[in-house]
Amino acid sequence: MKLLVVGGGGREHAIIKKLRENPQVTEIFACPGNGGIAKDAACVSIGATDIPALVDFAVEKAVDFCVVAPDDPLALGCVDAMEEKGIPCFGPNKNAAVIEGSKVFSKDLMKKYGIPTAKYEVFSDPKAALDYIREQNEFPTVIKADGLALGKGVIIAESMEQAADAVKSIMEDKMFGDSGNRVVVEEFLTGPEVSVLSFTDGKTIVPMVSSMDHKRALDGDKGLNTGGMGTVAPNPYYTDEVAAQCMETIFLPTVRAMNAEGRTFKGCLYFGLMLTEKGPRVIEYNCRFGDPETQVVLPLLKTDLLTIMRAVHDGTLEGVPVEFSDGAAACVVIASGGYPKSYPKGLEIDLGKAEEMTDVTVYHAGTALKDGKLVTSGGRVLGVTAVGDDLTSALEKAYAAVREITFDGAFYRKDIGARALKALGK
Ligand code: AMP
Ligand code: GLY
After folding, report:
1. Distance, CA 233 to ligand 2 centroid (Å)?
2. Is 228 in the pocket of ligand 2 (CB under 6 A)?
3. What are 263-285's pLDDT values in tens digits?
4. Is the pLDDT assigned to residue 150 strictly greater than 80?
5. 231 pLDDT exceeds 80?
6. What is the CATH number of the domain that holds 17?
7. Which of 120, 264, 322, 408 has its CA 20 to 30 Å from the CA of residue 143?
8. CA 168 to CA 162: how far, in whole Å?
């Protein structure tokens, strides 16, 4: 089988490595891929949002199956365009991808179908938003741009002054463009956060092993928000009891709600959850695998990924037993100096012995090949993952590999998994 994977980050590298385990797979193309993915797939320099070029390429190469991994092409209808040409895909169509693409849509969906989430109001007029915030007078309060905003569209305002700044930046200065035409103002919730990725074909939903992201740039959850500086799986806060509650109050109701709206979701549905004192609440939905959650979830997957993905497409997921190993995984992201603000590119990377270490996989996120040498090309450069019998051993192995790797200005968090270990009483 010939496969095409759309995307070029650490998540896509993890997907590609897993897909390669299937002996039926003869060739994988990655559009655009990256310097590390080039070892595992044929990288083709077509951007992930250039839908016409992607479809032409897939048709020309007679690709048997396509995986669309990032949010932008999904929101733009990449799956619809591929399937129109007879190329089966893993990923939601445009109609269903709106669950991530519009926060107003997802909040209204949850309200309509009684799915637990933070209380909220929607505004298209900045003055009305501010009047409401002033009237509520509850801080912190959460202000979210409606549309996609590279993971940066959520502002937690501690005061009226900060709220006014946030509303101005999003709605008047349009810092996220048209994504800020409307805002959601919502109640601030507290509790441990859990990421649950799931496979669904619109009938059956199979949650994957849970994980915990570390979004802030610096140790102790300090610094700016990033795309994610590291992950661990499983998430110790996500007990069997919580999982059962989520299945009944969140996962199944969401799948049914999307069907009822005529927006059947097929692909990976990501639940960003907060475990509050009053029970689990949905913080956000994503219409795709998380990054860097995928880098700890897929290494624990025992079932063949391509088999699952094809079953999701065919609507036969119910018949596929999806199994995860009992162990743990940890991923530590190594970032470019300056990230998530500006950072240099093109710096040479020395991986040391990291890639040869037992139970370690180095996923490439922002790397490129220049004159045959591996160099940095993004903010998040590498995701160093290790698996182990338990979290302590996974973390030890991951950090041992991280210490092998060097490039100018490289930095990483030293406390990935610390909170999870504490929750485990270690
Ligand atoms: P998002 O971009 O939707 O993933 O949100 C970014 C982060 O903002 C989340 O991971 C949470 O930590 C935080 N957040 C979002 N909504 C809320 C909320 N209602 N209450 C507290 N924190 C929130
Ligand atoms: N790590 C969070 C996300 O992928 O949205």
Report:
1. 14
2. yes
3. 999 999 999 999 999 999 999 99
4. no
5. yes
6. 3.40.50.20
7. 264
8. 10
d(CA 238, CA 424): 11
Task: Find the ligand nearest to 188 CA.
Answer: 1
Measured by CA distance, the residue closest to atom 5 of ligand 2 is 290
Nearest-CA residue for ligand 1 atom 15 is 283
Backbone φ and ψ of 52, nearest 5°: -60, -40
Choosing from 71, 291, 363 the residue with most ligand 2 atoms within 8 A of its CB, the one to mutate for a pocket test is 291
Of 49, 74, 91, which residue is a domain's last?
91
Residues 341 and 254 in one domain: yes
Residue pair 27/20 in contact (Cβ under 8 Å)? The answer is no
> DSSP readout, 261-284?
TT----EEEEEEEEEETTEEEEEE
Q: What is the Å distance from ligand 1's center to 192 Cα? A: 11
Which residue's CA is the nearest one to ligand 1's atom 16?
Answer: 283
Residue range(s) defining the domain that contains residue 183: 119-187
Number of domains into which the chain is organized: 3
User: For residue range 371-382, what is the model confidence (pLDDT) as tens digits?
Assistant: 999 999 999 999
Confidence label for 407 from pLDDT (cuts 50, 70 and 90): very high
The CB of 264 under 6 Å from ligand 2? The reply is no
pLDDT at residue 225 above 90?
A: no
Determine the average pLDDT of the residues in 143-152: 88
Which is nearest to 281 in space by CA: 143, 110, 93, 155? 110
Residues 289-312 have a mean pLDDT of 98
CB 332 within 8 A of CB 383: yes
Pocket of ligand 1, beta carbon within 6 A: 118, 142, 151, 154, 186-189, 193, 215, 272, 283-284
Q: Decide if pLDDT at 239 tops 90.
A: yes
153 and 16 in one domain?
A: no
> Looking at the structure, do residues 327 and 379 belong to the same domain, yes or no?
yes
For ligand 2, atom 3, which residue shows the shortest CA distance? 290
| Residue found by looking up tokens 């995701």 in the block | 383
Q: pTM higher than 0.90, yes or no?
A: yes
Q: What percent of the chain has pLDDT over 70?
A: 100
Predicted confidence at residue 246, as pLDDT, reads 98
Residues 162 and 291 in one domain: no
3-state secondary structure of 337: coil
Q: For residue 226, how far is its CA from the centre of ligand 2 (angstroms)?
A: 9
Q: Which atom of ligand 2 is nearest to the CA of 215?
A: 1
At 364 the pLDDT is 98
Tell which atom from ligand 1 comes closest to the C-alpha of 189: 20
Looking at the domain assignment, is residue 143 inside a domain?
Answer: yes
Q: Are residues 178 and 220 in the same domain?
A: no
Do 133 and 270 have their domain in common? no
